[in-house]
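Morning!

This is the sequence you dropped in the shared folder:
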Amino acid sequence: MSLGQFNSATLTVLVAVALASSPVWSQQPNQAVEEGEGWVVVSAPQVDLWYHGMAVVGFDRGNESTIYSSEYVDRVRAEKERLGIYPTALDVAADDLRKDLEEDAAFRILHFLPLHFASATPQRMLRALSAIGNREASDSGALGLDTGVGLGFAANALRGDAQRDVLGRFVSALEEEWRVFFDLYWNGTVAPDSASRTGLQSEWDEHAGAALRSFLAEQEMAAGLIFVSPALGRHGRFVRANALDGLDNAVAVWSPAGEEASAIVSAAVREMCFTVVDRGVVLAGVRVGMDAQTVGSRASVRCGALLFEAHNPDFLPEYTRSFLDASGNVSKESDLTDAFEQAYEVDESVIAALQRNISPEVAAAAQMEPPAPSWSVRARPQLDLWYHALATIGVEDEELLPKYNADYAAEMSRIKRDLGVFPTPLDRLSDYFRSELASKREFAFFDEVPLYFPTATPEEMLAALDAVSDRRVYQRDRVPPSAATGAVVATQVFHNNSLRRVLSRFVTMLRQEWEVFYQAYWYSNIDADSLGRAALDDFWAAIVVPRIDDFLERVRIDGGEILVSQPLGPKGRLLANQVVVWLPSDAGPRDAAYNVIKEVCYVLVDEMLEDLVDDRDELPNIRINAAVRCGALVLDYYAPIMSAGYRRVMMRSLGADSVTNTVARFERRFQLEPAVLEALREEIRRRY
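The structure's back. Tokens below.
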């Protein structure tokens, strides 16, 4: 979860209600949002109280030093000492609370929680959260139009008794803090300072609101609330609107004493940029083992600069200067751009991804109404070409389920000999590429490359990868739009000259293979054989989906593409809503459907294994076993008539005799530690 953005749709909110207007301080902002008047600058006591508590406790202090303001903590301590009330209950409990909060990553949602109580008073917010801590979330007095969103959000995220105990202790300390200190402090310092908020609103409207109106509308962020909170550091918060639960767009940014309004406007734009950053660059950063938080943080700053460069260049120097000040870099006016880009350096591919995602063409495409979830069964030439090469090369494969069809390479050699084209460059260079692809960990990504080119033709995919090899991926004429995402991801993976040289040779060889042999073979054999795919399509849609649709929806793959690929073995591939499976020549649609269920199960398995497996070397095989067993457990629950067939197909994929297959043999072959198996059962039961 990036600190800048938390999309509430990622958690199933227990109570779906709409926010209503509430106390005097918030009625005008809410009204403005409802009337579509854009972004409104507000201060809210419940938001400020919560972040005051987080700052005093020092939560996540070691993870990111700019999450909360240390100057603010010093300031409120001095005020308490002046009043003779230091330490308060919150100060006394701070160290213990910080330790407990930092032991469980689930508590990071607390950085965003008050934004889900946008219309509540401090007392109403604390009562609702106290009800969760005291196991009384159904308390009718705690639940209301002003608290339902936050109550459901917190209750769903913090389910364990230990988690709720910690939340209850923190809320109890905040209740006392409000009573003995913060109520009078906030009403004596923040509430009267309406002139600052008015000035900030004018600054926003003049430099960002009007200039970025079209961009914000295209991102479905035309209106929202900008909470200005003195306890925050330079890292703000952002939650996107959710029509299901009535949540408004909301940004929370700092308001340090003496800071210019332009810096606060710049901080707000940077937070809004996380909608683009999370979609455009974080996946690429994670793919090569980079620090996703650092990549996302820098990219969001650069995104804001790109926006102002395109829509309000007069404000760009103010924006760059504010973030240079934040980095501690003091530069001459003439050096602003160079100093800014050095302070927030990211790979050029990240900039290219940002530019594509904030361009009018991409934004217009994103605004298109998405189709209703559905499934289709297809074959793709670019995907099959890639896996044809890897299967022919015989890449190293030590996993329990083979990645490639063991008989495929020999069969292709026979066909080529019959056609008089054997050996092709692929056959001659197989030993070389087998050695190279086993030499560096980055080449493990070769197995996923074609999944990032879902709509490209083989020619377009190869042209884009040529551009990656030549470091010309940022030239639009070199990379077709259909291959843009794949090019950005590949640029991140193949990040040095030695990796790019191997990629270049592989692409050259693959283009020759396509032209000499595989193009004609694919269209005359794979593309022409539509009956097998049609049978799978019918079986999946008519028999399987009606029985397991609840499971598919809950793992967020309730529609997508099933891609049948001849070179693959029983180990399929899964990326987003693309599921790639094999279909052996002696198998039917039922076999492929069972493999789809197994692949979809990886979504559930990957969510739960991270905390259960300490031995990283054993994780790949444990992961496979868990996915295979997950498919059986899902069918046991939801479609028991299919369970025996599923187990037979999984055993046959390993060459076992189907006549002697039993449940016991299946469970021994795909064995799991009791703790992992029980956790898997519990997770499936919980999901149903």
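Headline: Residues 1-36, 280-290, 361-371 have pLDDT under 50 and may be disordered.

More detail when I'm at my desk.
O.
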